[in-house]
Fold these 4 entries.
Entry 1:
Amino acid sequence: MRGLQWFNALSAGPAAVAGLPASLKVADGMLGGQPVRFIAVVTDPDNRFPRARTGEVGLLEGWGLAKAVDDAIARGDQRPIIAIVDVPSQAYGRREEALGIHQALAAAADSYARARLAGHPVIALLVGKAMSGAFLAHGYQANRLIALRDPGVMVHAMGKASAARVTLRSVEELEALAASVPPMAYDIESFASLGLLWETLSVSQIEQPTADDVARVGDCLLKAIRDVDGRDLSGRLGASNRAASSHVRQLLREQW
Amino acid sequence: MTDLLSRHSFVELGARQRARALLDSGTFRELIDPFQRVMSPWLSRQGVVPQADDGVVIAKGSIAGLPVVIAAIEGNFQGGSLGEVGGAKIAGALELAAEDNRKGIETRAVLLLETGGVRLQEANLGLAAIADIHAAIVDLRQYQPVIGVVAGSVGCFGGMSIAAGLCSYLVVTREARLGLNGPQVIEQEAGLEEYDSRDRPFIWSLTGGEQRFNSGLADRYVADDVAQLQQTVTALLQQGVPAQQRSRQAEHYLARLNELDASPHIDAATVRALYQGERS
């Protein structure tokens, strides 16, 4: 419910786009005197797709996110787009695979990337889980990533049980490795060491943000919007724990 | 039978051979080749033997005289999974191809996708690299076609299935599978009744290359034959950017999904009918 709480606290006014699934919250608010679009994926116990009822990004969510972002692009005013990220996973299910959930998530990533290329400052605010395909579709194409400091805020490629099964390890072995290998860890401090976050900040009540929490996060979002100085993701490179990513690019350029 | 004998399997080739087979004869030039030994900094500390090319081959050359960069994933190394180095090779190559186009050099890209997605031993750096790859495909696609090929036998899964969905054109064979979540993971997360990872005919019927093509989620369906793949990729490169990008059809797909009765479990024929109507 964090995503919904922060969406309600930050946005104002009526729904900005008609015809979206109930699992998406999309509205425009004002930040620093300019219109800003807020987008969140939320739980929907009545979702027609049962595997997407608890906040997962599924078929309707992927295509719906694309529509919500496309609508912002079509307004032509380069309004900033804030993805409020609290997504436990993509939807895992038979219907989802059969109907091409990968294509739905591609549509969402496509729209966020095109918004960024079209000059919209795109900011992702991580208030809960940011897992795997769900994060790729909702947030990871942002110019700037901001995470709240909290044990419930985490970024990862796969849940622990599945990751253990796929890598033929026990969950305990996986946790032991995660403690010494930063990219494998589930906590936000380890993730921050990879250089992918623009800012982290603490709030007093992450589940039920206070007026002061909302004001501070709003201020941080505004700073991030103003900090956007390009249309690519190069601002994420440079951390020592991600040195190979820069090294490889340098070699490619030399040998190109 | 003569047709079968005259074919040369593409699926049986490794990543480097595949790239070489698609490029005009004598034009293959590999960047960061294995002798430079740019390897994963994360695997050996976990007891996994790294590979000198980290499972990704980047090759420049030409196809029918057109400037091309190919990124080929080696499905035989760690299931074609993408870690920091392999992911950065693909993202960096696509970024440079887009930069070329902004300077008037019309470099195109071909992605040979045999991958389970993120390499879990490098989890968050693999995921970050795949986000970079998505960004670079969307950027380059504005100028030139980015062609995805899923030939098999690994297939294309995880975050890289999203990359496949971003390509200007997608080519599949009967050996290909394309899906977001691997069968084992769906079974783990959703249970055996939802998805039986050992029921291969069932999985193939929903996610195999033929089904993806027949339901409009791939653009070309070709035999596992080097010459046919070469001809298909060449024709698509010459075609230029598509008029309508599949990943930009939200209204269409939302309308189709709204028509679906989502209560019963689904079969392959239902997907084809829903997405393609009379074509199936």
Note: The longest strand of chain B covers residues 56-63.
Entry 2:
Amino acid sequence: MKITKELLERYALGQCTKLEATAVNLWLESPSLSLDDDDDDELEVYTADDATEDSLIELELWQEISAHMQESATKSHTAERSENNLVFRPTKSNDPTIKFAALIAIAASLMIILGMGWWFYPTTADKEHFFNASNSDKAVMLWEEDSFEFTLSKNSSASINLQSGNMAVSGDVLFSPKKDFKLYDKHNNTSLDFRQGEVYFISTDPDTSELVVYSKSQLEYLPPILRKHIRKQFHLT
Amino acid sequence: MRLFTGLSPILFVVLASSIIGLGTSCKHSNQQVDSILDFEPVYSLFVSKEGVNNFLLVDSTWQSVASVRPPHANFNREFIQRKGFIYSVNPENDYLIQYKITSTGLEAVDSIKVVNDNIEQYHWKNNSDTLLISNVVHGDTETCRFYEIDTKTFSLIREAQLPIPPAVNDFSILSLGLVRYENDKLWIAFAYSKMLGHNEYTTLDTMYYRTLDFASLRVLSEQKDPRSTYPGGINTIQTYSGTAENGDFYFTSGPGIAAGNNIKQPSAIFRKKKGADQVDTTYMVNISAQTGNHAYGFWYVGNGKAIVRGERSDKYTDFSNHHAVYQFEYFLVDLASGNMEKLDLPLDKGTRKENVVQVGSYLYIAIDDEQENHTVWRYDLQSGKVSAKLSPKFPIDYLLRLDKLN
């Protein structure tokens, strides 16, 4: 009887006939575990040649999980057998049945993990698209992200929804974009253009709740008292 | 052919705008700006475009213009210029640096460490080479630091604390508006402000003056003047005072939104007579009463006349666009009668500017007008005639300064 992948799968699922099961058992006990199908000479069906980027990642995951599973399986087997005073069997890899079962388990785990990854992906992405920072007790606090920096004075907070572009600020903050941004004041739906390399002082108008934005180069046009107040808050002098 | 037909309206627009552009440029005779300085500079413009600053040096005939880059990216308009030298604080390290104006640009000569990254008040003692600098030291309790510098050797003669009270009640933001030396005395005008919110503040409704003994800095007298508030202003950014031929000293107050922000009080001109320790309480030119607006900036131009730069409250919404709207008018004030005459110049933008220079009976005024022209205008004090003198062909948002290099 030819031992094929399909047969092994049916064996794992308990769908084999008695005859087929005996053949598989015999095959599993044989020293060379070669499949009779020409296309799949080995059980390691993933090859780098035909793998896309995704499947490469999967392959890496597979190998990692596989290594981990084998390690833990070895440990558990060792412990179990010691307890039962049975003959110690050094590694599981010499046991084809266990190896196969482990591979099936790995495949199932991988499917579950990938499935979970897909399921949770939108939530994770949302988190990445939402920035939130607050400072309640320090004189000044710096928040550094890949594409921008926030300096928050005491009792201030800043948040940006990078997907919708909405920005909200309470207190006084300094915003230093590392790339050009177009953000929105959701209160009056006005767009705010922030330029890479410029520093912006942002606060909320207490009367209108609208964002008040000054670039550092505009600070010199402000009344001297206000400019001094801003400089003092952020220790710019 | 179809392509040509499709493009023709665009071509027409391009051609038309070129012709209009040519017409405009001819009218204002835009001067070419060279990158090499091969003439003796007599005037200097300090210009800003999207936060990038440049010097434009001009010859005595206003015919040749050369651009010179400032010594560093943080170099701003808050500098002192005198006798071929420029003095400016580097905000990176708070050093006051002395630069020599050379054909290749500003060459750093020497430096002195000061408090703060700007200069609040400077004054040339007796019009000599001794530079007096006064700064407020920022902090919860504000103090006042004084420097006396010999600019010939660029050495510090004295550094001291000035006896100025840090606050009046909860008005704890101190502004030094004027500092002046006369007869071995130092006279200082100041005001107190407080924050009302994140972006709101106001100034206490009194101008404070103190006269100190110059050597000991002991307080000799104090005067409270409730006629206005926020006397003078940061004089590296704009001039707010001047001395007449007879030695009388004139200055303005700035209670408007862009300075003291106590707008019920008037912008006005005050006088301290020669040799007097006290401000003359019998003299006041109420600018606001005549124009219905506040004013910032005062340049004494001789023969009892001064230029005042007034805002137009109907043009701006608040201080967020105060600098960007075209609103500033120039008035020639007769200091004896108090009469104000509006000059026939385009509305200017920029809340504060150091842009008035006098040469004989001519005044040169640098204006950024609504048509996006950045022009130095000449006003003839004798005939009252106005003419455009120079419009540099250079990227400019603001002509922040016009200096006569001397």
Note: The mean pLDDT of chain B is 92.
Entry 3:
Amino acid sequence: MNSLSSGLIVKLKEIVGENWVVQGEDLVAGYVLDETPPPIRPQPNLDVVVVKPNSSEEVSKVLKLANEYDTPVFPRGGGTGLVGGCIPTAPGIVLSLERMNRIVIDRDNLIAEAEAGATLRDLLNASDEAGLFFPPHPGDEGAQIGGLIACNAGGSRAIKTGVMRNYVRGLEVILPNGEILKLGGKLLKNNFGLDLMQLIIGSEGILAVITKAWIRLYPKFPATATLVIPFESRTVAVKAVPKILHAGILPLALEYVERIPIERSAERLGLKWPCKIGESFLIVILAEQSNEALYAQCERLLSLCEELNSLEPLLAESREEQENILKIRSEIYSSLKPDMVDILDATVPPASIGVFMDKVEEIAKRYNTYLPSYGHAADGNIHVHIMKEQGWSMEDYDRVRNEIYAAAVELGGTITGEHGIGYVRRKSVGKFLNPMYVRLMKEIKHIFDPKNILNPGKVLP
Amino acid sequence: MNNGLHMIVLIKQVPDIGKVKFNVEEGRIDRSSAPLETNPFDLNALETAIQLKEQIGGYVTVVSMGPPQADSSLRDALARGADRAILLTDKLFAGADTLATSYTLATAIRKIGSFNLIICGEKTVDGDTGQVGPEVAEHLNIPHVAYVCEIRSATLDKLLVVSDMGDKYLVEVKLPALITVTKDINTPRLPTLRNVLKAKKASIEVWNADSLAGYGELCRFGLQGSMTTVFKIVFPSEEGRKGLIFHGGDAVEKLVEVLRGRRFIG
């Protein structure tokens, strides 16, 4: 049992029903972690109760109650975050919206009305069944809509049509005092007042709880293909990226991967990485309205590859072969995780990605460490991984991390392009963010949540 | 044609079975509901041929019977390394069961002439019978080995293969012969972008029923030559996950009762 007042527990059970209030360390243990690498992950507080509401009204009542009892609330999605954003770091309520997973597709308006607990996989499937398409692939398909929006997830298919923020048209949120607020809707244009919806997107659960979203869908791209372009080195591969974009080729995704991590990921999945030559690769996913347009892009890419000094590119057209490449790419993180200290998502202006990766290589040499890197090359967002090294202390890892951050910031970049601040990046906020920016964030937090009950200990230093 | 093994790979264009919708009421597959692709097992068959060609030299002809759009699967095969592609297409071929299909394919192979080895996928994902390959071998009166998951050795005269029939059998087969291969035999390679674009412009030979006259009997093609008809397809209904919560002192008994009722425990 936990230290929360028994009166609070009784009332929570009255709101959501007895079956949906989970207590006891064994039972809550599955609700207190996320995918943050263990060496930097905060210790979760197991003195929590997990509450699973089934409607916005129930969420509202839970928050009113939490306010009344001054009890912290930690909203939780699919637990796929990488910076400890949903980990409860104090006694309180873990709010899991997993039961709120309904999705209604409005084909006429090209909008999905999705509850926060629906997963990315649910959204992709529901869109597909309605003959529509949700273009981005913002991370693990077990991630939930609420979390994807709260963290403004990016992922591998942002280049053509954008990150999560670019798809959200409306939100229903519950403020920390329990008030239900609807922001935007099925609208493409809306200039009525300050855009609070955009403020909530990416706020990492510190301002309000997202319960429902209106998400823009696209007609399907009937012609798709995935290319794997091999290169002899990281430098040549990364420097090819801006040139591909300059040539007027706008793929759905343009990812950078390296042989050792990608083969490790493939092996873990029981698959084979299809390219036998090269050390570094660009994965280019093309999505067009017709086969003619698709092959025209392919022709241009082939002639460009010769200029870019690539090795012979491969092309996957069948669904299974394309999905396997994406699957291998998506699982690199899981395959590296056991030996990893941190996954960084420092992001630079896209054209600077080559210079940035040169600096990363220079840092790796100077510290005599291996920094495997892969990611969203065309977004200027390559994930550099800090790996475990024998005899290193946390301070040693911090030094490498800070050098990489400094290199990104010096190039006009940011320390986090998509994972957010959560818990683990808070210590870098004061160092890399303007003090006035931090002050405004704190004041905004106070306006929304004067009692600081919503996801306390996160984002703000 | 150069020296080495002359291999013929039989391929079929099928709807993407992961996407296709089933019309449960009418008991049929709605083929228009999903994009078309090469039967996945046939890609393993093609890869087997390409690997043999790389090892001991040879020439690979792909043959497909189907509507004109099956042409795209043949182009894909050319991009992956096949040397020649033949499409058998004619209204007379339509409505064929496995017997008529295998007869038509065997007739086309007779027209092609000499060969050492015919390679097929173990089955197609839309028909799922696994009959066509072995039937082709019977029509041509050559030996066959089905469900080959490994080729231990290959020469111009014979193959030593492992056939996975539940248990594994090591089989030596004299050529000419036919084998059908499982997914375990290899991982099909991806074609190069250059070869895909080249294959788009390649010429595909198109053979109709008349062009096979003299190599077989036209009355054994298509619906007319079919001895079987599919009168109904039954789909097992899918049951989603269900959660049950038991309360109180007799919760364990109730749970045991449910599990027994469903025969999960004895």
Note: Residues 6-96 of chain A form a domain with the Uridine Diphospho-n-acetylenolpyruvylglucosamine Reductase; domain 2 fold (CATH 3.30.43.10).
Entry 4:
Amino acid sequence: MVAIIDYGVGNLFSLKSSLAAIGATATVTADRDVIRAADRVILPGVGAFGDAAEKLRATGLADVVTEVAKSGKPIMGICLGMQLLLEKSFEYGEHEGLGLIEGEIRPIAEVIPRELKIPHIGWNALHFCGNKHPLFKYLNEGDCVYFVHSYYGARCEGAVIATAEYGAALTAAVAKGNVMGCQFHPEKSGNAGLAILRAFCEMEGTVC
Amino acid sequence: MITKRIIPCLDVKNGRVVKGVNFEGLSDVSSPVELARYYSENGADELVFYDITASAEGRELFTDILTEVASKIFIPLTVGGGINTLADFDRVLKCGADKVSVNSGAIRNPALIGEAAKRYGDQCVVISADVKRVDGVFRVFAKGGRENTGMEAISWIRHCVDMGAGEVVLNSIDTDGVKRGFDLEMLAAVCNAVKVPVIASGGAGKIEDFITLFHTLPGVDAGLAASIFHFGEVKISDLKEEMKKAGIPARLV
């Protein structure tokens, strides 16, 4: 069973439907015991980092995420959920993240040419870093996925497993052991996205 | 490299897809769910659903259809038509829409854009403008292109973006349904005025029209069309191949 953590941020309809489409049993929940009992956990999120981090802590779910990460179960952050896994963010101020993966969230505007539009929105090709991560086992180099973001993961070089080219090589996905994160939306990335979710759902305990 | 998006637009009335030529003479085309699935499997990068129903029953039918589409198709969905309040935003987002497109609702109440952007984020709010030349000036039309608002279009669109619209769909009434190519002049004016993604709509008749669009105006992010896709005159997979050959970044599936 996949637990999709519900902390009042974003619309989880598509994520739940896409997991159903690949035959995974998923539940949207804020119940700590249900999250603890799940085989794997997804931390979703859209919106502003500060707000989301605050909600995650206020509901006590931040501790559960950390606990799951330490347990060795596969856990994946999506979009803002990925950003929350890092140490801190500079989106409207400075906010503490969960610190499960080294790095910080910074404005895309700092690294891309001025003429490029922000947010980075649309379908962009994934470029794998080093050996192909198990999350991408059904994908090919250059497959496109759907992005919508104005901030990106910086100083997380050691954990980057894929980038997307948008005036700079932007962090597209990160991983550290059983903790993974996608900046893009697998649930909106057609067959490529479903293949990533399928790979995630097939992972057993501590990966790589 | 970010790819140029190809977006089929589905006008939905009483649960069925229709497409007007110059907004008149609607004809039934197909089932929204079937069409959406077909497009998703054949390379569409995004889908736009316009609810052109006026009645409450029709609206309910639309949200049912939308929920069904969103639970089966995993590419971004934009929904427009009858969006007048934050409650309307809420209604379609809960059914699985990713972006909400406002047109007449924003003309009646421009504050809606800012309020929606604040609550759901800029990326969620799309300003859709129906624009037509009147005595050489680009004017915004309301009510599905039937009513001249008298507003100058470029300044209106810029204002909407300043208030928080994260994307612009520019539908040229002058070229809509004519199938002789997109309205490059009108699109250029919009691209020069805003820094958010611009989606070209109205006028595509063949593959070359998209190639010309993206070559002439690198600032345009996406091309939107309806009938040429619905009636199979242009296959999206063929279009993507031709884009790739022409050096335009495209997502092949």
Note: The first strand of chain B starts at residue 5 and ends at 13.
